[in-house]
Amino acid sequence: MDQWLEGLEPIVEHQDLKVPYRYSMGATTSKFFIEIRDQKKILGIRCPKCKVVFVPPRSTCGRCFSPLDKWVKVSDQGTLQTYTIVHYPTPVQPAPTPLIYGVIKLDGADTGLAHLINEADYEKLRVGMRVRAVFKEDRLGNMLDILYFKPVEIIKGKRGKGVRPKAKITKGKTRGIKRKA
Ligand SMILES: [Zn+2]
């Protein structure tokens, strides 16, 4: 125990601190969100030295500290690297619980993008499954311009050659994420 507490009854007051604030996203993140808002394009940024493609983009390579400015378009589809199902509601969640958070490595990217997973059967969720972005209709320039990612079903062609992705609608949808703002 700290000395100043000896022989003293510590009085503890509990309060909630609410801090609304605004900040500039900066040139790199602004471009990322502008392309999603205006073109439904997801961009990454490639390190000229170690060749890593970061999504979301960043202005400095986290591995070799090179400055980054080489933009590359990545796919709106990718692979689920990990996920969690949230049952405990808090005011900061972007949707009612239960909801699924996942980390998605988009095709063409080397890093994972954290986002919501929806239109998914909880029982069939698995690491490695294919998912694709569902964009909001009225986009505002923020991360929720991508509403969520949903599973992609791979179906073999008529003659067993090739594959084509098809959106999969399944039971056990999460609630409360609407397509329109
Ligand atoms: Zn690098």
3D architecture notes:
With 181 residues, the chain is mainly β. 8% of the residues lie in helices and 31% in strands. The chain contains one helix and nine strands, in the order αβββββββββ. The strands form two sheets. It has a six-stranded antiparallel sheet, with no helix packed on it. The protein has a three-stranded antiparallel sheet with strand order 2-1-3, with helices on one face. Zinc ion (ZN) is lined by residues 47, 49-50, 52, 61, 63-64, 66.
Helix content: under 10%
- Rg is 21 Å
Low-confidence stretches: 158-176
- Strand percent estimate: 25-35%
**Average pLDDT taken over every residue:** 87
Q: How would you write the strand order of the largest sheet?
A: 6-5-4-7-8-9
Biggest sheet statistics: 6 strands, antiparallel
The number of helices is: 1
Enumerate the distinct ligands: zinc ion
Number of strands: 9
Please identify the structural class as seen in this structure: mainly beta
Q: How far is it from the N-terminal to the C-terminal residue, by CA?
A: 52 Å
3D shape:
globular
Order of helices and strands: HEEEEEEEEE
List the helices and strands and how they pair.
Layout: H1 26-39, E1 42-46, E2 53-54, E3 70-74, E4 77-86, E5 99-106, E6 113-117, E7 130-135, E8 146-156, E9 163-167
Antiparallel strand pairs: 1-2, 1-3, 4-5, 4-7, 5-6, 7-8, 8-9
